[in-house]
Amino acid sequence: MSRKRVAIVQSSYIPWKGYFDLIRAADEFILLDDVQFTKRDWRSRNRIKTQHGPAWLTIPVRTKGLYTQLIQDAYVSDTRWGEAHWATLRASYGRAPFFREYEERIAALYEARGDEERLSDVNLRFISTICALLAITTPIKWSTDYGAPAGKNERLIELCRKAGATDYLSGPNARGYLDDAQFAAAGIQVQFADYSGYRE
Protein backbone atom coordinates (compact mmCIF):
# COMPACT_ATOMS: atom_id res chain seq x y z
CA MET A 1 0.00 0.00 0.00
CA SER A 2 1.37 3.40 -0.97
CA ARG A 3 1.53 6.08 1.68
CA LYS A 4 0.06 9.57 1.49
CA ARG A 5 1.31 12.41 3.64
CA VAL A 6 -1.10 15.28 4.34
CA ALA A 7 -0.41 18.62 6.06
CA ILE A 8 -3.23 20.81 7.41
CA VAL A 9 -2.54 24.46 8.27
CA GLN A 10 -4.43 27.76 8.40
CA SER A 11 -3.63 30.13 5.56
CA SER A 12 -1.14 32.94 6.19
CA TYR A 13 -0.31 36.21 4.49
CA ILE A 14 3.15 35.97 2.84
CA PRO A 15 4.20 32.95 4.91
CA TRP A 16 7.76 32.20 5.99
CA LYS A 17 10.11 29.64 4.43
CA GLY A 18 9.09 26.80 6.79
CA TYR A 19 5.49 27.06 5.57
CA PHE A 20 6.62 26.26 2.04
CA ASP A 21 8.95 23.51 3.28
CA LEU A 22 5.84 21.92 4.81
CA ILE A 23 3.89 22.22 1.55
CA ARG A 24 6.77 20.68 -0.42
CA ALA A 25 7.06 17.76 2.02
CA ALA A 26 3.34 16.88 1.77
CA ASP A 27 1.47 14.93 -0.90
CA GLU A 28 -1.56 17.12 -0.25
CA PHE A 29 -1.79 20.43 1.62
CA ILE A 30 -5.10 21.42 3.21
CA LEU A 31 -5.83 25.03 4.17
CA LEU A 32 -7.88 25.00 7.37
CA ASP A 33 -10.38 27.79 6.69
CA ASP A 34 -13.45 26.66 8.64
CA VAL A 35 -12.09 27.66 12.05
CA GLN A 36 -12.45 31.00 13.86
CA PHE A 37 -10.66 34.03 12.45
CA THR A 38 -8.48 35.79 15.02
CA LYS A 39 -7.45 39.44 14.75
CA ARG A 40 -3.78 40.47 14.81
CA ASP A 41 -2.67 37.05 13.64
CA TRP A 42 -0.65 35.65 10.71
CA ARG A 43 -3.85 35.17 8.68
CA SER A 44 -4.00 38.88 7.86
CA ARG A 45 -0.57 40.29 8.63
CA ASN A 46 3.16 39.71 8.58
CA ARG A 47 6.26 41.52 9.75
CA ILE A 48 9.10 42.65 7.51
CA LYS A 49 12.45 44.35 8.01
CA THR A 50 12.72 47.97 6.88
CA GLN A 51 15.50 50.54 7.13
CA HIS A 52 13.67 51.90 10.20
CA GLY A 53 13.32 48.52 11.91
CA PRO A 54 10.57 45.88 11.88
CA ALA A 55 7.20 46.89 10.39
CA TRP A 56 3.83 45.14 10.15
CA LEU A 57 2.02 44.72 6.85
CA THR A 58 -1.65 44.20 7.72
CA ILE A 59 -4.55 43.43 5.38
CA PRO A 60 -7.61 45.27 6.75
CA VAL A 61 -10.43 42.82 7.51
CA ARG A 62 -14.08 43.46 8.41
CA THR A 63 -14.45 42.50 12.06
CA LYS A 64 -17.00 44.89 13.60
CA GLY A 65 -19.71 42.78 15.21
CA LEU A 66 -18.21 39.61 13.69
CA TYR A 67 -16.55 38.18 16.78
CA THR A 68 -16.99 34.52 15.86
CA GLN A 69 -16.60 34.65 12.08
CA LEU A 70 -14.70 31.84 10.41
CA ILE A 71 -11.58 32.43 8.34
CA GLN A 72 -13.57 31.52 5.21
CA ASP A 73 -16.04 34.34 6.02
CA ALA A 74 -13.44 37.08 6.63
CA TYR A 75 -13.54 39.78 3.94
CA VAL A 76 -11.04 42.52 3.14
CA SER A 77 -12.45 45.89 4.22
CA ASP A 78 -10.30 48.25 2.12
CA THR A 79 -8.87 47.33 -1.28
CA ARG A 80 -6.13 49.99 -1.12
CA TRP A 81 -3.97 47.85 1.18
CA GLY A 82 -2.12 46.36 -1.79
CA GLU A 83 -0.70 49.67 -2.99
CA ALA A 84 0.65 50.53 0.46
CA HIS A 85 2.15 47.07 1.04
CA TRP A 86 3.83 46.98 -2.35
CA ALA A 87 5.28 50.48 -1.89
CA THR A 88 6.74 49.43 1.48
CA LEU A 89 8.19 46.22 0.04
CA ARG A 90 9.79 48.06 -2.90
CA ALA A 91 11.30 50.68 -0.60
CA SER A 92 12.64 48.03 1.78
CA TYR A 93 13.80 45.33 -0.65
CA GLY A 94 14.19 47.07 -4.00
CA ARG A 95 17.97 46.69 -3.90
CA ALA A 96 17.99 43.15 -2.49
CA PRO A 97 19.51 40.34 -4.57
CA PHE A 98 17.00 38.82 -7.03
CA PHE A 99 14.36 41.50 -6.37
CA ARG A 100 14.29 42.54 -10.04
CA GLU A 101 14.00 38.91 -11.11
CA TYR A 102 10.73 38.44 -9.19
CA GLU A 103 9.41 42.00 -9.06
CA GLU A 104 6.86 41.66 -11.86
CA ARG A 105 5.30 38.46 -10.50
CA ILE A 106 5.07 39.83 -6.96
CA ALA A 107 3.71 43.20 -8.11
CA ALA A 108 0.93 41.35 -9.94
CA LEU A 109 -0.19 39.79 -6.65
CA TYR A 110 -0.76 43.22 -5.14
CA GLU A 111 -2.52 44.53 -8.24
CA ALA A 112 -4.89 41.54 -8.56
CA ARG A 113 -7.57 42.42 -6.05
CA GLY A 114 -11.31 42.83 -6.33
CA ASP A 115 -13.69 45.29 -4.71
CA GLU A 116 -14.94 42.62 -2.32
CA GLU A 117 -12.56 39.79 -1.62
CA ARG A 118 -12.23 37.02 0.92
CA LEU A 119 -9.02 37.01 2.94
CA SER A 120 -8.69 33.27 2.24
CA ASP A 121 -8.63 33.94 -1.51
CA VAL A 122 -5.95 36.63 -1.10
CA ASN A 123 -3.76 34.26 0.90
CA LEU A 124 -4.28 31.38 -1.54
CA ARG A 125 -3.27 33.65 -4.43
CA PHE A 126 0.00 34.51 -2.69
CA ILE A 127 0.69 30.93 -1.55
CA SER A 128 -0.03 29.43 -4.99
CA THR A 129 2.13 31.97 -6.81
CA ILE A 130 5.06 31.49 -4.44
CA CYS A 131 4.70 27.71 -4.76
CA ALA A 132 4.92 28.07 -8.55
CA LEU A 133 8.05 30.24 -8.23
CA LEU A 134 9.60 27.57 -5.99
CA ALA A 135 8.53 24.71 -8.32
CA ILE A 136 6.32 23.20 -5.59
CA THR A 137 3.55 21.12 -7.18
CA THR A 138 1.74 19.81 -4.09
CA PRO A 139 -2.06 20.02 -4.57
CA ILE A 140 -3.70 22.57 -2.24
CA LYS A 141 -7.27 22.07 -1.04
CA TRP A 142 -9.63 23.80 1.41
CA SER A 143 -10.80 22.04 4.57
CA THR A 144 -14.32 22.98 3.48
CA ASP A 145 -13.85 20.75 0.42
CA TYR A 146 -14.04 17.83 2.85
CA GLY A 147 -15.96 19.00 5.92
CA ALA A 148 -15.02 17.73 9.37
CA PRO A 149 -16.32 17.77 12.97
CA ALA A 150 -15.20 20.22 15.64
CA GLY A 151 -12.39 19.41 18.06
CA LYS A 152 -8.69 19.83 17.33
CA ASN A 153 -7.73 16.18 16.97
CA GLU A 154 -11.10 14.95 15.68
CA ARG A 155 -11.19 17.55 12.91
CA LEU A 156 -7.63 16.81 11.78
CA ILE A 157 -8.16 13.04 11.86
CA GLU A 158 -11.35 13.28 9.82
CA LEU A 159 -9.71 15.57 7.26
CA CYS A 160 -6.82 13.10 6.97
CA ARG A 161 -9.24 10.21 6.59
CA LYS A 162 -11.29 11.96 3.89
CA ALA A 163 -8.10 12.93 2.03
CA GLY A 164 -6.90 9.32 2.15
CA ALA A 165 -3.87 10.12 4.32
CA THR A 166 -1.71 7.48 5.95
CA ASP A 167 0.54 10.13 7.52
CA TYR A 168 -0.23 13.51 9.06
CA LEU A 169 2.63 16.02 8.80
CA SER A 170 2.49 18.78 11.40
CA GLY A 171 4.59 21.68 12.57
CA PRO A 172 6.59 21.08 15.78
CA ASN A 173 4.44 23.46 17.86
CA ALA A 174 1.53 21.01 17.67
CA ARG A 175 3.32 18.53 19.93
CA GLY A 176 1.59 20.19 22.88
CA TYR A 177 -1.96 19.34 21.78
CA LEU A 178 -1.88 16.51 19.22
CA ASP A 179 -2.94 13.15 20.60
CA ASP A 180 -0.74 10.61 18.79
CA ALA A 181 -2.80 7.74 20.20
CA GLN A 182 -6.01 9.09 18.64
CA PHE A 183 -4.31 9.33 15.25
CA ALA A 184 -2.81 5.84 15.63
CA ALA A 185 -6.25 4.42 16.45
CA ALA A 186 -7.46 5.89 13.15
CA GLY A 187 -4.53 4.28 11.31
CA ILE A 188 -2.71 7.58 10.76
CA GLN A 189 0.92 8.12 11.69
CA VAL A 190 1.86 11.58 13.02
CA GLN A 191 5.11 13.13 11.78
CA PHE A 192 6.56 16.47 12.85
CA ALA A 193 8.39 18.78 10.47
CA ASP A 194 11.86 19.90 11.47
CA TYR A 195 12.26 23.52 10.39
CA SER A 196 15.86 24.36 9.67
CA GLY A 197 17.01 27.95 9.97
CA TYR A 198 17.79 30.17 7.03
CA ARG A 199 19.79 33.32 6.46
CA GLU A 200 17.68 36.48 6.43
Describe this structure as you would to a colleague.
The protein is of the alpha/beta class and 200 residues long. The protein has one domain (5-192). The protein contains 6 helices and 7 strands, in the order βαβββαααβαβαβ. The chain has helices spanning 17-25, 81-93, 99-111, 119-133, 152-163, 180-185, and strands at 5-9, 28-31, 45-50, 53-58, 140-142, 167-170, 189-192. The strands form 2 sheets. The protein has a 5-stranded parallel beta sheet with strand order 5-2-1-6-7, with helices on both faces. The chain has a two-stranded antiparallel sheet with strand order 3-4. Strand 6, helix 6 (180-185) and strand 7 (189-192) form a beta-alpha-beta unit. The longest helix has 15 residues, at 119-133.
Number of helical segments with 4 or more residues? 6
Stretches with pLDDT under 50, minimum 5 residues: none
Cross-sheet strand order for the largest sheet: 5-2-1-6-7
Helix content: 25-40%
* Integer count of domains: 1
The overall pLDDT, averaged over residues, is 92
Rg result:
18 Å
Question: What profile does the largest beta sheet have?
Answer: 5 strands, parallel
Overall SS class:
alpha/beta
Secondary structure tally: strands: 7
* Beta-strand fraction estimate: 15-25%
Order of helices and strands: EHEEEHHHEHEHE
Task: Give the overall shape.
Answer: globular
Distance between the termini: 41 Å
